[in-house]
Oligo-1,6-glucosidase (Haloarcula mannanilytica), 574 residues
Amino acid sequence: MTTVQMLSDDELNRAWWKEAVVYQIYPRSFNDSDGDGIGDLRGTIERLDYVADLGVDVIWLNPVYDSPQKDNGYDISDYQAIYGEFGTMADWEALLAEVHDRDMRLVMDLVVNHTSDQHEWFQKSRQRDPEYEDYYIWRDGGTDEHGNRTPPNNWESFFGGSAWEYDAERGEYFLHLYDTSQPDLNWRNDAVRRDIFDTIEWWLEKGIDGFRMDVINLLSKVKGLPDGDPDSEWIGAEHFIDGPAMLSYLEAMDEEVLSDYDVMTVGEMPQLTVESAREYAGADGPLDMAFHFQHTKLDYDDGERWSVGDWSLPELKRLTDRWQNGLAADGWNTLYWENHDQPRSVSRYGDPENYRRESAKLLGTFILTLRGTPYIYQGQELGMTNADWETMDDLRDVDAINHARELLDRDGVEDYDDVKDIVGYRTRDNARTPMQWDDSHNAGFTDGDPWIQVNSNYEAVNAADQRADEDSVYSYYRRLIQLRSDRDVLVYGDYMGLLPDHESVFAYTRSLATEDRTERMLVVLHFDGDTETVDLPVDYVDATLVESNYDHDDADPGTVTLAPYEARVYELFD
Ligand code: NOJ
């Protein structure tokens, strides 16, 4: 008999965004309506029934603003216009209406740490227009012993190389924590904050339902911009991540704009810890949720992103416990494996060759049965996999191309073939191959030449086949999404991790007692391609197997023998 504290409906602190499942659309790769090889807004509208059928509640749309597309829209040149290849503002308005007509909500991407260098603000800033002179972070550099120019400090760009670029027109360096075409805004400047808050309000007035905020904990840089620790994972990070004014900027954004609207906000926050997640997105924090990255680094070798290491299940359990327990009383988790920046999860944590279906379902079970809001990235619900990146010319991702060049400069590296495995494994292009709609030419994504290669497995892995198959990854996701929306326990229930040291089985319970009902679920996940028998330390009188990625009706969760990548969800009765 397990005792769970009885909660009143009030104490559940219900919120629509806690009960929602989010589906992320990367429009460039979702569906092309006009044959130019690039996905667009009209194409997205054509596929909304598919998204609604899956049962999700919220769509997060990657940036669709006007942009030179150096970083696929994360380099914005006009916050209030739509990128021409994606469509027009009228198309975007039609998309919003169509999403709402299907009882879903639309969350937009907010990219305000930096703009494109083509933004009018930057153009005027580099010309020292008095109104915009201070909109970006400009500094004099120094000179070395040979008289060559040197940057103001040793900070690194996330995409490789120095975070500083010399601008001959202005005669100063500007800071860019990402690509050279993405100068960082100067958030110390009141006028910058005012302009950004106005932009946020402008979009909220259009009726959107929230924002996913790009690298939002990078806005505040330490005064004096001191050198960073040269041995750290991202040089300079201690001076620009969670900077001194960070919380107050977000509090002002919330007080002045966001709090007037019933919207959800989720901050993307590099190097986020549980403690700062509570500050930013606890009950008193300015945001609703935050994305951390701890589980996305499990397969790094020694903390190095451009490497592949073995990952361990006990480590995943430790960090899951840390986040589930750490935000139990205050805060709310985000649950994700994939997004447009992450390689495909089946290729990282599953077995794409031998157990693609089973492992894709297992990974889906994980994010759909934990406490928090699940985020599904387009194609994840089909078990899409990483692609092959045979030549440098196949790559499109600025990050991968920059890093491939850096790797090619290393001693002993002769050509792309020497770095192909790591670049191919890690490139963000893996997430950006076109959505696989059917087995027709180009997977039904476009009638033209796709801007990026289609994954060669589209005849075997596509939405049309999977929708017709009850046993598919798609159908499994659909059932689990339904289960989650039917069961408060899967949304609000307490989490308890079991078997912390087991090398291949991850098991946990979710428990909830309300005035209406007491519910307990047990989730058992076998992260390996062999067979494993395990004793589960749970008390129950009766149990029902509610969902599994194998066909059986084993109703006894005491001692279980698990098949390769087996996932089971039980309901337990006391
Ligand atoms: C995070 C975004 O998700 C990524 O795609 C982008 O390149 C960087 N932020 C810079 O905006």
